Amino acid sequence: MTDAFNMLRNPEAAALARGDLMGMLERARQREARLDAFASTLPKVTEGELASLGQSDSTCPICLTPLLALLAEEETALAMDSPAHPVEELGITRLAQTCGHIFCRKDIRGWLYQGNTTCPTCRRPFITLAPEDTGTGVDADAAGQAALFDDLITAALATPPQFDEYHPIFGSPQGPRRENLEDAAQPAHDQQQRDAHFDYDDDRSAFSGMYS
């Protein structure tokens, strides 16, 4: 919170933070694009290919679901108007360009988008990312929070707050404004003048007989 207030009071720091934020989001978008490009190259494995590879009785190493059951699920889902899962996550695939291990498409895509670049079975690398792309990246929630933070910074730069209008958070309480004190004292001052004038008239009436 203190950093946020400092940025609000320092437009240059806010602009710098915004630049860093935009750079982070751009790197995340580039990373997602590279992962999407790799995921789109993963082949779909058919039942005949499973048989030729001798994997008809195998299971997915990640979810342990039989591969033939995953193929049957894909066939059923494609026959429906609205499959329960995205089409690109249905069926099974194979890391054909490297180790050749077979997985269900849903789990290997999840493994990939979590920032993993090696085969879950043998740990052989199957994709090469830039150094800044390693790790878990930026998920949708974090990106949304970053966009909200950017909106706050933009608004702060457009209309910087007037901090002299607020009471201090720490230290002694701020007293009432000077103009408020003067406004409050004015009626009492007027009453004192009226009382003094009344007393003066009384004093004069006491001597009126001496000069008649």
From TrEMBL:
InterPro entries, from UniProt? Znf_C3HC4_RING-type, Znf_RING, Znf_RING/FYVE/PHD
Q: Entry's SUPFAM superfamilies?
A: RING/U-box (SSF57850)
Q: What keywords tag this UniProt record? A: Metal-binding, Zinc, Zinc-finger
Q: Name one Pfam family in it.
A: zf-C3HC4
Domain of life of the organism encoding this protein: Eukaryota
Region annotated Disordered sits at 167-212
Q: Name one GO molecular function term.
A: zinc ion binding
Q: What is this protein called?
A: RING-type domain-containing protein
